[in-house]
Amino acid sequence: MTTPDDAPQDRADPEIVSQTDAEEGREARAEGASSGGRRAEVAILGNPNVGKSSLFNHLSGAQARVGNYPGVTVELSQARLTLAPGREAWLTDVPGAYSLSARSAEEQIALGVTLGLGERRAPDVVLLVVDAGQLARHLYLALQLLELRIPLVLAVNLVDEVEGDLPLGRLQAALGVRCVATNGRTGAGVAELKQALLATLDEAALAGVDDGALGAGAGSSTLAPLPTPKYPSELVAALGPIEAAIPDAWLATPHRLSAEDSQARRRALALWALTSIDDQDELQGIPEALRAACRQVLEREELPDVDLEVISARYAYLDALVQGLAAPEAAPLTQKLGLTDRVDRVLLHPLFGFLIFFGVMLLVFQSLFAWADPAIGLIESGISALQDWVKDVAPSGLLRDLVTEGVLGGVGNVVVFLPQILLLFLFVGLLEDSGYMARVAYLMDRVMRSLGLHGRAFVPMLSGFACAIPAVLATRTMERQRDRLLTMLVIPLMTCSARLPVYTLIIGALFPPSTVLGFLPVQGLLMVAMYLFAILMTLAAAAVLGRTVVKGRRVPLILELPPYRVPSFKALLRATLQRAGSFLKEAGGVILVCTLGLWVLLSFPRAGEPAPGESPEAHQAAALEQSYAGRVGKAIEPSIAPLGFDWKIGVGLIGAFGAREVFVSTMGLVYGVGEPEDEEAAPLREKIRSEMNREGKPTYTPLVGLSLLVFFAIACQCMSTLAVVKRETKGYRWPLFMFAYMTALAWVMSFIVYQGGRLLGFG
Question: Does 541 score more than 60 pLDDT?
Fold first, then answer.
């Protein structure tokens, strides 16, 4: 079982209440324990897009991320909740989940918090937020909580989006829990919600809970008896072995349960296990005895379809309950979806929907390329000016080189991505909060599913055209770990903007500015071809990896299409800045270390003074040849020679690991012309074009250039991307695999291009 404390946090957003609050929480619990009491624990659960985080903010004053797309809240946000003078609780915002059947990361976390698995204590009361306009569907989670005998208060939210009479009193009587009408956007009903939570907590005190714990036993509620759906008798009878294998720790609650309620909780856990555990689940920490019991029961041929029977029984109960809520004289409860329906007729249209989406993505795409350029140039100029200043004020030597080329250069490689990251998350957040992103996932699911990808993979992949780093971060909007991982593994194959300087250098140096058919420029066609080649390779890699290395059960896209809403630009800006800060803090350190390592390889061993008559440029090129990187280039030359590459290109490939565009400056150093500016790019092209081998023939031919283009299009020549993937997957396994498979694939494809071209008489 994946628990919130020890599980990999899939799609981990940084929008979590400050670590200081968490530390204060631990200190407060310690103080409470020493004084014989403790603060109550309140957990907020609910379906995605139901306004759960908005209520969290109103209740606590904290600033959790508010979004309109499943998976926006992906970590546990926690804050203090003042219920009354002198009465405080700890409030935890749990990721949105459609049920407790743990098949997505959010549902695993929700279950772990609800049951108090791992080191986390189970909540004294759960605040369940439901959509007033979709009670039957949203009460499914409430029914699961009641079956588990979890203390419950119901917040019937989004009341401003429904018309008719809200049957709040009848719902409260039917479920046996307190129900409060709320509006997460305005904060209406929050005061009443606090009163309901306080009353539910006080019920436990009146019932005489042990150890001074302020909990609310669901079974002790005086409102109504707890409901129970009618499951098939043969299914209930088959649960015996699974019930026996349920760990005792899963049965513990902070409130007292009767023997009957304890048995009901055990049965509910057995049902959960039977509908969640199988050979392809992603759950962690499941006892082997429980897995074996589930496997044994599922293999019985006489049993009906377990998932179908359990879900059908629950919805049959809920449908009957909701139908019984309406009074004969009351106006029917309906959602105000007139505008949403009209807009969706266009945005979800099989033709116009894709055209509009293409236009929106073109705008985002153009912004990441063009709008970020001024800011990127400003950052680069600032870093360069700072490097020049250090060179002016510091004496020449190793320390100055370390600061200017290693530290400042490394920081520049991190900070230069910020404009693109800010723009990407600003646009993605705008699309999420408005409700449009859910439509995008719906539109793209059919296309992406045929390739083994999820519908939500399209936006991160598209943003990979600008930079793989923010694209990898954008995979956090995907639910399942398998889908996130598969998308991350293929995103670096998209042609990022860092490849453009390399493509420009190679195409400009080795392909003449001629035309095809008299009017189509060869250089322009080749650039377009490289983009198309990258797309095809990305889709092919996804299809292969999704059926081999990253195999997994294909889960259909279960997605709510919310009403369109005006985003909160203040919250959007705050979330964008938080994400950028998280990138700098967590990924930046790894990237800086990698960049410093590259500088060491290019700078050592240190060369002596130039020989008499030796130009500085020639001395610099000779020093690079004798550096560790140069020696490695010589060492790897036999392995890259079949691709048409020599040791100088090998050194360039090593330099490109810091950032792909470093290939240009590294090649400039190799040829002793320094790092070329725009107006000085021609000399480097001339050097490459005029380079001759021992036989007096051109070293770099168009065939060599094409082979190099293919290699750069596929190989993972970017330490920054590897560092971010390492950070997102919390280990070295997948970044190492990504580096290995992309490098091997690049070698094979370049070999085919070069050797195949030679067989055809080119080169």
Answer: yes
